[in-house]
Design brief:
2 helices, Thrombin, subunit H, single chain
Length: 123
């Protein structure tokens, strides 16, 4: 796995709406990661990510998910994956398509996609 650092700032767009800023910390193969600061546009999408986080971290002491939780997690992941997610890298003026997006509080990670193909390395 490769990890390229060098912090940069990016804007996150969901369905063509600016939803916040990402302080990009780096990339690890096809995955990027950083710190997310939500903007006003994120309010519409926040419930999906809150529910994803709640289900992912579980509510049971052993951390196991019930069958109902697993079904709910699949449902919310489906809703998130249907979003048209894009990243605008401010310094380079470059747009990046996102095929998978995880926001957990202020932490964000995303898998980049180029020319309708997932990439093995976006770094």
């Amino acid at each position: 796995m490769r990890r390229k650092g060098g912090q940069t700032t990016a804007r996150l767009f969901l369905d063509e709406q600016d939803v916040g800023e990402i302080e990009v910390k780096g990339w690890d193969d096809a995955w990027g990661f950083g710190e997310f600061s939500a903007g006003d546009g994120f309010r519409r999408y926040a419930p999906h990510f809150r529910e994803w986080s709640r289900l992912l971290h579980g509510t049971r002491p052993d951390g196991a998910l019930t069958d109902a939780d697993k079904a709910a997690l699949r449902g919310v992941e489906y809703q998130i994956d249907r979003l048209d997610a894009r990243l605008f890298l401010a310094e380079s003026g470059q747009w990046r398509r996102i095929s998978e997006l995880n926001i957990d509080g202020s932490l964000v990670e995303w898998r980049e996609k180029f020319e309708d193909k997932d990439v093995s390395s976006a770094a």
